[in-house]
Design a protein that fits this description.
Layout lengths: L2 H4 L6 H23 L8 H19 L1 H33 L18 H31 L30
Helix pairs in contact: 2-3, 3-4, 3-5, 4-5
């Protein structure tokens, strides 16, 4: 069922125009907060939350289904998954260098300038930032789909719609 069929989406030129103008600034500020989190207030969680909020703003302005089709389930899943992989890689890197999990001082064995700071920033930026942004966008789309949505592509619980989105025609990847 589309936004128009549900009656939940009303096109507003004011909201659409505002989101078009504000979105690049919110995205840039989210990246700024993420990248400068080790030296100033902010970090991966706060920056990831701002970046994830961009998907919500787009959905409010242009419709949830249109945003879900444009962004795709794969992008959200890959972002969160890459964050977990980066977090684990930095954590296990400390173990491989003779320390414990997420022991940044173990990175002093590498010929890097400020290895402890680089380890912390790698976890904040690549790990936590991607996880939080992906989870916020993913949870929004799952919540917006409603309790009756067929979100499990392999379950076959929903009616056949003739598409290959795996979500009963409500989103998926735009391919």
């Amino acid at each position: 069922m589309s936004d128009a069929e549900r009656g939940t989406y009303t096109e507003s030129e004011v909201i659409m125009s505002t989101v078009r103008v504000v979105t690049p600034f919110v995205l840039t500020f989210g990246l700024f907060v993420t990248f400068h989190g080790a030296d100033s207030p902010g970090g991966g969680f706060q920056g990831g939350a701002l970046v994830g909020t961009v998907a919500l703003m787009l959905a409010f302005a242009f419709g949830i289904d249109a945003t879900r089709r444009w962004l795709g389930r794969r992008v959200v899943t890959v972002a969160a998954s890459l964050g977990v992989v980066a977090f684990a890689a930095v954590g296990l890197g400390g173990v491989a260098l003779g320390g414990s999990f997420l022991d940044y001082t173990a990175y002093k064995a590498l010929p890097l300038k400020k290895p402890v700071k680089l380890g912390i920033e790698a976890v904040e930026i690549a790990g936590i930032g991607l996880i939080v942004g992906g989870v916020i966008a993913g949870l929004f789309f799952l919540t917006a789909a409603g309790p009756d949505a067929d979100v499990d592509a392999g379950a076959g619980a929903g009616p056949a719609t003739g598409d290959d989105t795996g979500a009963g025609g409500r989103g998926g990847d735009a391919e």
